[in-house]
């Protein structure tokens, strides 16, 4: 099989050689010069460099001109899913096409599909439809405005009422370019869970449920974020399976988020990729399954995949944490941990940004770009959550002014 891999995701995270048999398949890695240079020199396969100045699908199609058509296009990054679908469509390669990818990228399309499957979703409307209505929207209370294809809660706003949201948008206080690219939905309160795993033909073959400590929106506004693994009860597995079927997830990794309310889960969104921060690491620690390499095995050699997911013990759960730095007004940061939470026995490892390393201005969960991140466990869900609350309450990250490095 000729395999084309869009290599935006680092080999450290993707573990390409673990997922793809390079002795059996003809593998080509395509990416910008920077992305290709990050690949280990001893990783087999050829390299194809694209300029990185235009749309990646167009650049890849140009680079492939005159070459043999690939039999498989691998894309693990959220940013590559639609471009990979375009490449498949243009070249006639099997796999997810743009219509399918839209179901895991467009929040209006995915919630429409999930609602049609009889599952509960927040009430929502495309933003142009809401602005055009004379009688307002069919809900009251807190209201969210968010990009239809956004991630990491970038450009998300929460208002006290739908009228306040629409008035702000009409008045220009929250004016945005491309109003067609946004949606408006009711805010549903409650703890937020994420369900991660690998699906084969819409059905999960490995699955783990975790509960957020903090929120992604809070992280975008400068607060730390984490999650802890919790019980994966049969009802949640059944619900997640129904969600995956509704959006035709096929054979892929999935990252599914919901409000875990007293009357059952309320769907928030689903992605056809692995979760950020410490999701991949903690999933493997608890279950023995490495998400990116496992799905690559299913894509390239499905008849020889032997997945054996272990069920974590109640005291064998894991969690992760990450602190933002994009909101700090300085060129680098200082980390203050007065109660010694980073040396607590529950901390398996942590990565902290050195005082001389510049801060990134992007919202990111990546450990090599965030000021501070780490994984914790094994322990019970309750112990892990108590630890995260303590760390988030007592530790501090502050900006350093230029020239104030020790």
How would you describe what is shown here?
- This protein is α+β, with helices and mostly antiparallel strands and 406 residues long.
- The protein folds into three domains: 2-101, Rossmann fold; 123-186, Dna Ligase, domain 1, CATH 3.30.1490; 192-400, D-amino Acid Aminotransferase, Chain A, domain 1.
- Helix content is 28%, strand content 27%.
- It has helices at 11-14, 16-19, 33-37, 56-64, 81-91, 98-102, 107-116, 127-132, 162-171, 216-220, 234-246, 279-287, 291-300, 381-394, and strands at residues 2-6, 26-31, 46-49, 72-75, 124-126, 143-147, 157-159, 182-186, 192-200, 203-213, 225-229, 252-261, 264-271, 317-323, 332-336, 347-352, 372-379, 396-400.
- Strands 13-12-9-10-11-14-17-16 form an eight-stranded antiparallel sheet.
- α3 links the parallel β2 and β3.
- α4 runs parallel beside α5.
- The termini are far apart.
- The model has no long low-confidence stretch (mean pLDDT 94).
């Amino acid at each position: 099989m000729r395999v084309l891999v869009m290599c935006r995701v680092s080999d450290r995270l993707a573990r390409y050689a673990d997922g793809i048999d390079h002795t059996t398949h003809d593998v080509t890695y395509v990416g910008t010069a920077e992305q290709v240079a990050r690949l280990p020199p001893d990783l087999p396969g050829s390299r194809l460099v694209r300029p990185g100045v235009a749309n990646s699908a167009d650049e890849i199609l140009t680079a492939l001109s005159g070459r043999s058509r690939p039999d498989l296009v691998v894309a693990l990054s959220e940013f590559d899913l639609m471009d990979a679908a375009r490449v498949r469509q243009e070249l006639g390669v099997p796999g997810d096409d743009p219509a399918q990818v839209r179901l895991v990228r467009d929040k209006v399309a995915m919630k429409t599909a999930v609602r049609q499957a009889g599952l509960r979703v927040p009430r929502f409307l495309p933003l142009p439809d809401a602005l055009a209505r004379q009688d307002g929207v069919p809900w009251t209370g807190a209201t969210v405005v968010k990009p239809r294809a956004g991630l990491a809660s970038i450009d998300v706003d929460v208002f006290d009422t739908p009228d306040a949201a629409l008035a702000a948008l009409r008045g220009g206080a929250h004016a945005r370019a491309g109003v067609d690219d946004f949606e408006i939905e009711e805010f549903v309160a409650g703890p937020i869970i994420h369900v991660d795993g690998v699906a084969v033909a819409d059905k999960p073959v490995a699955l783990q449920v975790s509960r957020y400590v903090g929120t992604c929106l809070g992280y975008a506004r400068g607060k730390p974020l984490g999650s802890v693994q919790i019980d994966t009860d049969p009802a949640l597995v059944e619900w997640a399976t129904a969600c995956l079927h509704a959006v035709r997830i096929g054979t892929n990794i999935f990252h599914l988020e919901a409000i875990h309310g007293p009357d059952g889960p309320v769907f928030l969104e689903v992605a056809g990729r692995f979760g950020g921060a410490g999701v991949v690491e903690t999933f493997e620690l608890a279950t023995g399954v490495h998400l990116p390499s496992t799905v690559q095995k299913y894509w390239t050699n499905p008849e020889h995949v032997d997945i054996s997911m272990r069920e974590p013990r109640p005291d064998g759960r894991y969690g992760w944490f990450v602190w933002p730095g994009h909101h700090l007004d300085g060129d680098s940061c200082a980390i203050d941990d007065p109660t010694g939470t980073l040396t607590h026995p529950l901390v398996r490892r942590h990565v902290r940004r050195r005082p001389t390393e510049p801060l990134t201005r992007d919202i990111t969960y990546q450990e090599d770009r965030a000021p501070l991140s780490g994984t914790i466990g094994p322990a019970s869900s309750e112990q892990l959550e108590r630890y995260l609350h303590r760390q988030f309450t007592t530790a501090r990250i502050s900006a350093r002014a230029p020239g104030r490095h020790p």
